[in-house]
Amino acid sequence: MEAHEEKPIIYTMENKPIVTCAGDQSLFTSLYTSLAQQLPREPMEWRRSYGRAPKMIHLEANFVQFKEELLPKDGNRALLTFPFLHIYWTDCCDTEMYKASVKDDMLRWQSTLRLHGSVDWLIVVVESEAKKKNKTNILPRTSIVDKIRNDFCNKQSDRCVVLSDPLKESSRSQDSWSSFLTKLRTLLLMSFTKNLGRFEDDMRTLREKRTEPGWSFCDYFMVQEELAFVFEMLQQFEDALVQYDELDALFTQYVLNFGAGDGANWLGSFCAPVKRWNGLLLRRPIDMEKRELIQRGEASLLDLRSYLFSRQCTLLIFLQRPWEVTQRALELLHNCVQELCLLEVSVVQGALDCWVFLSCLEVLHRIEGCCDRAQLEANCSHTVGLWTYATEKLKSLGYLCGLVAEKGPTSEDLNRTVDLLAGLGEERPETVNSLQSPYKKLNEALSSVEAFEKHYLELSHAAMEMYRAIGRMRSARLIGKSLAEFYMKKGDPERAEGFLDDSLRSYVAEGWSLQVTHTRKQMAECQKLLQQTEDYLQTSALLAGDANLTVEERKHFCQEILTFASQPPAPSDQTVALSMAAFAQLRQMQFSPPGAVVHVGAALQLELRVRCLMPVAVKVEQLAATLHFSLEQGGARGRAGSAQRRTGQGPQGQGDGVVLFPQGSPLAGAGMGASLLPALELYEMQDRSPSDSSLNSTGVVCKNMHLLLRRHDSSASLDTPTAGALPAAIAVDDGAQMLRARDITLQPGDNSILFTAPTGEPGSYTLRQLCGSVGRVQFVQSHIYPVVQYEVYSQEPQLTIEPLSDNLLAGIPQKVKFTIATGHYSVKKGDALQLSNTDSMPILHSSCCSATILSSTGERVGESALSIQSSEKVTSISLPPTPPYHTLEFQLEVLCHIPPTPFKPDIERLTNGEVRHRPKSHADRGMINIDQKVSIDCPWSIYSTLISLTFYVPFKAKHSILSAGKRKYIQVCLQNVSDTIFHLADPVLTECQPTIPVELLSLNAKTQQTVCSQQSVFCLWEMRWVERLPLCLQCAFSASFAPVSASDAHTAFKPYRYEFQLDRVSTLYSLKAEILPPSGDQHCRTGTLCGLEVSITRQAEPSETEGEEEESTEIEGLRTTKLMYEVVDNSSNWAVCGKSSGVVSMPVAASATHRVQMEVMPLFAGHLPFPNIKVFKYLPHSAVPAIQPDTDSCLENDTMSLLDKGLDDQGDTASIRSRGSVHSVGSGEQQRVLPMPRLEPFSPGQVFYLSQGRQVLVLPVTDDHVMEVNVT
Amino acid sequence: MAVCIAVIAKEVCSYWAGTKACTPSTCGPAPYTFYLQVFGHFFFSPLFNQNYPLYIRSVPIQNELKFHYTVHTSLDVVEEKISAVGKAMADQRELYLGLLYPTEDYKVYGYVTNSKVKFVIVVDSSNTSLRDNEIRSMFRKLHNSFTDVMCNPFYNPGDTIQSKAFDSMVTAMMVQAS
């Protein structure tokens, strides 16, 4: 309804449901206006049959005077003219009058209705006050209304309503109006429901008969359309649309069935040849012409479809769904084309194109007519399909009618055009006056080449713009491409180029190879016309290598290049540089030798494997790779280091000198840009802290980001030929060093080319660009990626001497390896190494000494004997002639004598702990090392080379003196600190300066022993003497040793010598301890005090020399020395009660004994070892502090440990806290400051403790339930 | 009747690159460099090769180029349809995109996997036996078979599909459809 008001242009059917009026016409006329106004004012709910949703509906009606002709006759199913309700109007209020005339009239009316089976009627009695007042003789009891109800509505009292004072503005009047209208609406709806239901039933019945032979779709169409009309009349556009959609579907199904071989008779009329193709007509709500055609069964398929769509379109626009129109239109057009094809309808060629073109534009015009500009722009996506379709159709019409050809249409084309235009018929009256009607457009476009071009371009650009606007770039490019084709046809390659280039780029970028090939072919044609030689050749090169083309085509393009290349260059012309990518692909490069690191002047070959993409063999005059030379700092870098760096370089580096070039995915194989793209090189990066190599951070690094993040366009420029030439950087630089190969014939497929790399100067050479020349054409690859490089180095001659084993051991012959890297020096005949001899390390040369010569790659080249001459001072080794950059290796045996004096001082002092921190692992084990320096004169240098060798002494010796009463033993402990197993033989101990004869009696049984690594051998000798022991004894231990592995046992034995000195050997005192159980008890018990009796006995008169040392005092003629004793219990077995230490004066006489009584308490039960008792020399403070006893030689350990033990123990044993001054024993400094008495320990062996190792039985306390037994 | 079936790579390819493990000293003269490569030499640039066909086959072969153009152009609509669905809705998005657009000769249907690999089926407009349901089931079959291809450990994601199983499945489908 709103559509009516807003768009008055739209002509709609002015149909309304018909309501007839009988009775008092003047009365009705007076009420008509307000009735017609008020009826549609309020909506009414329409409940529908078949479960359809109820609807609110505004009712309108067309009130007409009742005539009998209006009533439908039997079988007439026209719905539009069907009177839905019959109303009888009367304002009779007079019974007499009623009886006289009105009743009869009503009866007649009723019988007529009954005759036609119409039951939808209503009697309206209009009451007015004015009339009543006039007629005072009204019987109030029985009103006219009652009478009428009584007469006519025997059961339906609601069929008679009263309208009171309709023309007055009173509330009563209002009420009666509204109740009347409600009644009227209800009855109308009831009538609709009933009549439409009946109609639908009839229609359905008719539809069910569709398999019967006489059935006609056109008849049925008319019936169902009637229903659609009624719904439209009732403003139920949705329902109306459903009717048309049903018809559409039914028809479609028939066509499909026909296609499937199930043809209906009536379809025959639609199979008639198409004679008119004047397009859709959407400007009229109902195209009566076509409707009549259908009604007559003369409509063609296009007529039917057109009519159906125009109706659907009208309804959709009523429903405000213009975008559905466009969508349906496109479907319809596609569908019609298909259906005509399916029904095998004969159509003049091009006629359908005309029809589609006109229809597209008609739909677009129709949509434009009902939408504003902003709406249209926002809904491009809905209309663009129609635009494109129209463009396509116009294009094909243009091609058909010869409007695209360069020469214009031929007469045949003109005939065809005339035929096509004839089928359009006359322009419809609606558009005659409009300037831009589809009809006019088509007429114009087909009339001349220029007009066609104008219209075609206009449409194409419009469609392209729309596609661009909605982001459908691919579709836009496709139109662009067809435009390009158009331009090419018109012989206008300049304008085509841009479109082609644009499309080509997008296809290349997205990797659609067929399109690329196709477009590239067009591009080549275009470029050839434009005479863009370079671009044309580049495109040709790409096409020649394109696997999508046939071999003939490829050969053609290849020939194009070759022909150009072979032409003699014009003076102005330069060579043409093309991208190598189109011509050939690099597959791999292989260096020989594989390390790609060679010395100056060495031969280095590079094998390049290239896949030639050309279809025929191409003769390349020169293939050259430019080298970038860079002088690396430290040109004479170690060979090994650089070689390792080389291997594994680049992601494809295989470590064997092969560089593989990444290949793109197969689809890109035909010379597409993608194949040349660098790989993403990701490296894991770990940052470790330098101190403890813990991980600080880790990450992934892209090493070739600069290549990957290049702009898209710039990298594509090489592959898609554009107007611009290749970058200037490609210009081949002749001055640089090059790898060159001349006159090669590249066969299609893989080719192998061998280059010889220049190695004239030390430095690093990187391959930069590759350039193949074919006549005037050069194929250039500007970058070679991954990086291919090789290194040339120069090296100074170098001599190294290294041990053959882990450590060199002193004392036995050891092999050392001499390695001479000749570098650039060539060893001539007569060159010799001069080694200056040292006494401590003689060189043992045997006759069978030979040298090996190795080449730079580590291959064994030769071997020759060495002649070694020794003079007193110099050992001369004459070297065999060796070429430069070779390695000369030989081995020599050397022997480092073990120095006889034990040179421990430096090291041994540090023994306690500190040594551990020394870096050398050998120090851990206490190996003594000897550094031997060898001075060598080399022939290539005027300076001597000083080489240091470190030898390790394999043994460590220790000695100690053991006592048993007065008897003395010497023990030597020899520890093998090396990793080698030795045989040890003939241990001999001798006295060096025998002032007083002492017999050393060997207690060692075996003569030869095996000493494993880290094992020790102990040797023991008893000392026998006649008179007395010397104060000081110089001893020398010697033994011979040989490695177990030594073959020649006799010569292999080498001497080992260890010298030491013993002082104060003889026993001065003996100590004896006794533990006495408490009186009356037989055994000691835990927790009870026991007596400890210590007796100190002087064993011998001190010798004179000893006496000097000993501090003695003379008291009453008796010489005494002061001793301090101390009870030390290390294991906390004993608690010393009372004093634990004391000072005693000992007479300086043999067998003088001193007894001390102390009390101790056992803390545990069991066999407890006796507590330890120690004796010190007690030196009064006045005495000049004696020089600290020399702790060197072997004594220091024992002495020191004794002291240490004492100091350590103080924490354990409370009883010796009291000793106080003992602390200061070792500290001489303190002594000087404070005049305190001093303690000095005895040498080992001077005091003999008899009770060492004795145990006493301690019983537990009897009532102890828990017995602790301590077994030691 | 003509049918074309295409599988098109996702927009932005995830690429498997040679990953090199090394210590930072590799950049300098390191005595040792070691690296591991994942899945051989397979490289590609994120800038290139988006939306390229992983697999495309059509019968009859004469119209191949036209099919390629059609499929390629249909990507516009696929993209439009994917982006039309909101980000939040993307999870519940139906994979089947329905009819992308009709042309006079062909109907183009689209389907997008969750990983944005696109399937496109083009059938003759006149082929009335293929309704929406048939197309749907064709896509489902295609997707299943594609999943099998992806599960193959020897297949590098992003390579063109050369699986025989996939090929024969497509052949069967084409025979059935035409």
Automatic annotation (TrEMBL), chain A:
TRAPPC10/Trs130 N-terminal domain mapped to chain residues: 14-325
A biological-process GO annotation: intra-Golgi vesicle-mediated transport
Regions crossing the membrane: none
GO cellular component: cytosol; TRAPPII protein complex
InterPro entries in alphabetical order: Ig_TRAPPC10, TRAPPC10/Trs130, TRAPPC10/Trs130_C, TRAPPC10/Trs130_N
Domain of life: Eukaryota
Region Disordered, annotated ranges: 635-660, 1208-1230
Domain TRAPPC10 Ig-like: 799-951
Comp. bias regions, Low complexity: 639-649, 1215-1228
Entries under PANTHER family matching the protein: EPILEPSY HOLOPROSENCEPHALY CANDIDATE 1/TMEM1, TRAFFICKING PROTEIN PARTICLE COMPLEX SUBUNIT 10
Protein name: Trafficking protein particle complex subunit 10
Biological source species: Hucho hucho (huchen)
UniProtKB/TrEMBL annotation, chain B:
Protein name, as recorded: Trafficking protein particle complex subunit 2-like protein
Chief subcellular location: cytoplasm
Assigned keywords, A-Z: ER-Golgi transport, Transport
UniProt record similarity statement: Belongs to the TRAPP small subunits family. Sedlin subfamily.
Subcellular location: Cytoplasm, Perinuclear region
Signal sequence residues: none
Annotated organism of origin: Hucho hucho (huchen)
Coiled-coil stretches noted in the UniProt entry, renumbered to this chain: none
Domain of life: Eukaryota
Keyword Phosphoprotein among record annotations: no
Organism taxonomic ancestry: Eukaryota, Metazoa, Chordata, Craniata, Vertebrata
Keyword Transport annotated: yes
GO cellular component: perinuclear region of cytoplasm
Entry's Gene Ontology BP terms: endoplasmic reticulum to Golgi vesicle-mediated transport
Cross-referenced Gene3D superfamilies: 3.30.450.70
